[in-house]
Amino acid sequence: MSKPAKTIQDQIQLLKDRGMLFHNVAVAPHFLSNISYYRLKGYWWEMQIDNVNHKFAPNSYFEDVIDFYNFDRNFRLIIFNAIERIEIALRSKLIYHMSLGYGPEWYIKQSLFVDPFHHASFLSKLNNEMRYSSEEFMKKHFKNHKEEIPESWKSLEIITLGSLSKLFQNIEHQLPEKSTIAAEFGLNNQKYLASWLLSTTYIRNIVAHHSRLWNRVIINKYDWPKSTNYPLL
After folding, report:
1. Phi, psi of 49 (to 5 degrees)
2. pLDDT by residue (tens digit) across 52-104?
3. Closest residue by Cα to residue 87 from 233, 185, 192
4. Residues 9-31: pLDDT tens digits?
5. Residue 40 burial by CB count (10 A; 0-12/13-18/19+): exposed, middle or buried?
6. Helix ranges (DSSP H) in the chain
């Protein structure tokens, strides 16, 4: 049975009934009208001493919940900035090393990839994205070179980090370029980069959807190398 919707005043009263305290309850409607009750729930979950009846521990203040929320918002901005650098670097290194080794259209060559089914699925999705891309350079390519496959420096510029990650993971493991790319990220083995990229993509999607990152369990398991070219921490 679904729960009935509550007014903001009802939400505040419910929090009070469960033991939530307020330094200044007058400002609570402002926050609850701009950040939903359900979204804030993730930030007060740890304050509960009874997760069944949702009772709060003593000295649990609504203003602390807002502080957690604001911390998480700024934390996500820092993480997104770091992921942006990783994504752009991965794209650049893939295009550079693989194009020099196997030609500008290397990404369509099935022999360079481990799983032909995943490769075919990737190409189908990529072709659709290229055809409907709003990027001027892609529209110009199909206008001026209708019968030519876009070079990787065009095609890979429009795909997501998730697609880039899966593309890298599917490249044949024995190709020296794959190890070179990993080494340029400071890793001695390409398998570490592949697993890290999956986790990074997962985190990137959390950030992109403005979801809670603080105090969150990351479900993707990544490999931790015994040694690296540069200190990790």
Report:
1. -105, -10
2. 889 999 999 999 999 999 999 999 999 999 999 999 999 999 999 999 999 99
3. 185
4. 999 999 999 999 999 999 999 99
5. buried
6. 8-17, 28-34, 37-44, 62-102, 116-131, 136-144, 152-155, 161-170, 176-184, 190-208
What's the 3-state SS for 172-232? CCCCHHHHHHHHHCCCCCHHHHHHHHHHHHHHHHHHHCCCCCCCCCCCCCCCCCCCCCCCC
pTM for this predicted structure? 0.85
Rg (the chain; Cα; Å): 24
Give CA–CA dist 229/233, Å, rounded: 12
| Pairing, β 55-56 against β 48-50 | antiparallel
